Amino acid sequence: EKIFSGFSKTRDNLAVIDELLLYWNLADTDRVLDELEEALLVSDFGPKISMKIVDSLRDDILAGKLKSGNEIKEALKRSVLNLLTGKNGKADLQLGFRKPAVIMIVGVNGGGKTTSLGKLAWRLKSEGVKVLMAAGDTFRAAASEQLEVWAERTGSEIVVAEGDKVKASLVLSQAVKKGKDQGYDIVLCDTSGRLHTNYSLMEELVSCKKSVAKIIPWAPNEILLVLDGTTGLNMLPQAREFNEVVGVTGLILTKLDGSARGGCVVSVVDELGIPVKFIGVGEGVDDLQPFEAEAFVNAIFA
Ligand code: GDP
Predict the structure, then answer these.
(1) Does residue 89's CB lie within 6 angstroms of at least one atom of ligand 1?
(2) Which residues form the SRP54-type proteins GTP-binding domain (predicted)?
(3) CA–CA separation, 161 vs 221, rounded Å?
(4) Ligand 1 within 6 A of 244 CB?
(5) Are 93 and 222 a contacting pair, CB within 8 Å?
(6) Ligand 1: does its nearest atom lie under 6 Å from the Cβ of 137?
(7) Tens of pLDDT, residues 89-131
């Protein structure tokens, strides 16, 4: 599976844990757990989670529940898995039963929004879904062209702005209307991604959301926030703001193939309580994968 090679850098970071646990003995617990915590921090699990994990391991070791390095490793994996799956929200897309379902993709420029939208279209098309794309990033001139390339590549229809300075909300509502009138299954909406510190972007996203809901009341079914995995914990404030303003229903974490910071997946889920729905592990059409918590844990603690 690609996911296993995808996390090689995070896995390399965490491999030190195996060596530590190989030579663990009770008398050595404090030093080993300190170093284990350090390894988690380096991989961007974040201070809160790293401490929480290590404290619970220490409790279980001192209570005699964990008696070997192997048992400690298994307990570590279990607690990471619990952190990932204990939160609200399903990891698969929630698209309801009425057509078309509408997915809005949001996130700052450069994070991998357009690429992820293209890869998602590819995935949906391969499942036999009739996909319509909406080029809602009307600020960045090249964005529509980039999306048109993805439409071509995936054999999807696309709605783009006719003329300059067209509002994103107009493009999205036109697309959703077309999706409804012409029997599409899913409308995938790209949006603008200028820096989140620019308030007008957030205003625009809110107006995009309202404009699609005007056409069909259940839309958008999903608002997926694309986050650049290489930014690690730095993604957190940005994610919080998007969530507060537009209400994010799922995350797409990109560029995890090149990142040694895979632990941020755990911290972002823990902090926001929003499920990761997909991960990006490369630039090709096949490189968007549904997020599976168990496979992820096995990949990083291989
Ligand atoms: P946008 O501005 O958010 O729409 O970002 P783009 O979709 O244009 O992506 C920015 C860059 O990141 C492009 O060069 C993409 O090919 C690259 N990219 C996106 N997702 C991934 C990923 O999962 N892995 C890698 N290695 N590169 C990615």
Answers:
(1) no
(2) 275-288
(3) 23
(4) no
(5) yes
(6) no
(7) 678 999 999 999 999 999 999 999 999 999 999 999 999 999 9
